């Protein structure tokens, strides 16, 4: 029981970060666009990031395809960490380190899976052969 509860709560806490990121990008995309533009990337990528954050967060909460989604989130966190690599700005450096910590949590989630309390699809094929 303890493992089921902690797995579900852990998934929800990790997912909350990405869901909040999607909401932030929807209501105030400017800061994310500025970071993208500052690195010479198209500012319109903020909308792709918003969709990815929302879908990945939802799948992690529901426990659907946890391993591959968590692995992709680890890569996403590692990549986006570099947007915050501004050594003269302590706040940005804390976000840089936080992104690496979240990547580590996502790697553990990818290794361990979603746990028992997750949305599952039938193990049997929908059509018989």
In short:
By secondary structure, this protein is mainly alpha-helical.
Structure description:
- The protein has about 130 residues and is mainly α.
- Helix content is about 70%, strand content about 0%.
- It has 5 helices and no strands.
- It has helices at about 1-25, 30-40, 45-60, 65-80, 90-110.
- α1 (about 1-25) runs antiparallel to α3 (about 45-60) and α4 (about 65-80) packs antiparallel against α5.
Task: Please describe the structure with a list of short key phrases separated by commas or semicolons.
single chain; 129 residues; mainly alpha; 5 helices
Please give the share of residues in helix: over 70%
Mean pLDDT: 92
The H-and-E topology, N to C, reads as HHHHH
Largest sheet: none
Shape: globular
The strand count comes to 0
Topology:
Blueprint: H1 2-27, H2 30-38, H3 45-62, H4 66-81, H5 90-112
Helix pairs in contact: 1-3, 4-5
């Amino acid at each position: 029981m303890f493992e089921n509860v902690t797995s579900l709560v852990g998934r929800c806490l990790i997912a909350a970060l990405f869901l909040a990121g999607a909401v932030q990008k929807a209501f105030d995309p400017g800061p994310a666009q500025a970071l993208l533009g500052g690195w010479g990337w198209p500012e319109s990528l903020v909308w792709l990031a918003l969709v990815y954050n929302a879908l990945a967060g939802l799948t992690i909460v529901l426990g659907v395809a946890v391993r591959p989604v968590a692995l992709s989130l680890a890569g996403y966190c590692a990549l986006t960490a570099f947007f915050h690599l501004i050594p003269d700005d302590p706040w940005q450096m804390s976000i840089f380190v936080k992104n690496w910590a979240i990547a580590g949590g996502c790697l553990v989630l990818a290794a361990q899976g979603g746990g028992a309390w997750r949305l599952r699809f039938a193990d049997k094929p929908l059509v018989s052969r």
